[in-house]
């Protein structure tokens, strides 16, 4: 397994990618069902711990993936202008309540000075690497931006994420429909004119 530099221990050393321990997850969900007053042996719930453990391998697949693997697809096309992929659907899990948050991510970047770009789909894959972990929205946003700087050497990047958090909709404060918007901007895209152009392209025609 390759090391994943974005996963660090308390000393800042890189941790190896993590796989879901299926048996442990299954046993924990069975126990959780007992804890909420359910009977995990009743017919409808009998296979639920196993299903939830299998679902966890998808929901948290990003824990075993690293951004540099995704960004290894590179093409030299001598392009040094803004590239934007917007409306990338994003599903993540809030690390506070383990409930979903769902929305869209928009990613724009100005390639490295040598004009090297990555595949368009890789931007969406990069978002998934960070979204498929227990997360907060701000961290996904900054991790995507920083990965493009670190691994692709981009001259500028802007990432905007808009999402609804089910922990705010179906419990707690009970505010369905509220959307949280986060952004991260690096390099040349901090320039006000470039940033304004990027924002109008990112959000253009949507409002
Ligand atoms: N900043 C940030 N907060 C989040 C995110 N997802 C969930 N939260 C918030 O995490 C906070 C946790 O607050 P706590 O007071 O510790 O937990 P709680 O008692 O369940 O809070 P309530 O949700 O207000 O009922 C809540 O305000 C959530 O809205 C996120 O992605 N970013
Ligand atoms: Zn939450």
Automatic annotation (TrEMBL):
Quaternary state and interactors: Homopolymer.
Entry GO CC: cytoplasm
UniProt cross-references to InterPro entries, sorted A to Z: GTP-CH-I_C/QueF, GTP-CH-I_N, GTP_CycHdrlase_I, GTP_CycHdrlase_I_CS, GTP_CycHdrlase_I_dom
Residue intervals of the GTP cyclohydrolase I domain: 26-201
Name of the protein described by the UniProt record: GTP cyclohydrolase 1
Listed pathway(s): Cofactor biosynthesis; 7,8-dihydroneopterin triphosphate biosynthesis; 7,8-dihydroneopterin triphosphate from GTP: step 1/1
Organism: Knoellia subterranea KCTC 19937
Keywords, in A-Z order: GTP-binding, Hydrolase, Metal-binding, Nucleotide-binding, One-carbon metabolism, Zinc
Family: Belongs to the GTP cyclohydrolase I family.
Taxon lineage: Bacteria, Bacillati, Actinomycetota, Actinomycetes, Micrococcales
Annotated GO biological process: one-carbon metabolic process; tetrahydrobiopterin biosynthetic process; tetrahydrofolate biosynthetic process
Enzyme Commission code: 3.5.4.16
A GO MF term: GTP binding
Region (Disordered): 1-21
């Amino acid at each position: 397994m390759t090391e994943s530099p974005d996963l660090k221990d308390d000393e800042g050393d890189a941790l190896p990618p993590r796989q879901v321990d299926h048996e442990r997850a299954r046993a924990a969900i069975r126990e959780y069902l007992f804890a909420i007053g359910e009977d995990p042996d009743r017919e409808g719930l009998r296979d639920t711990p196993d299903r939830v453990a299998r679902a966890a391998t998808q929901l948290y697949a990003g824990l075993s993936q690293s951004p540099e693997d995704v960004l290894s697809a590179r093409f030299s096309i001598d392009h040094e202008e803004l590239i934007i992929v917007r409306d990338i659907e994003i599903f993540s899990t809030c690390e506070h309540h383990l409930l979903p948050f769902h929305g869209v991510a928009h990613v724009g970047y100005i390639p490295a000075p040598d004009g090297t770009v990555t595949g368009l789909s890789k931007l969406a894959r990069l978002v998934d690497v960070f979204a498929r972990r227990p997360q907060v929205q701000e961290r996904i946003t900054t991790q995507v931006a920083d990965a493009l700087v670190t691994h692709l050497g981009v001259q500028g990047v802007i990432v905007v994420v808009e999402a609804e958090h089910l922990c705010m909709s179906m419990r707690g404060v009970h505010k369905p429909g509220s959307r949280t918007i986060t952004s991260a901007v690096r390099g040349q895209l901090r320039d006000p004119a470039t940033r304004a152009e990027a924002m109008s392209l990112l959000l253009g025609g949507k409002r």
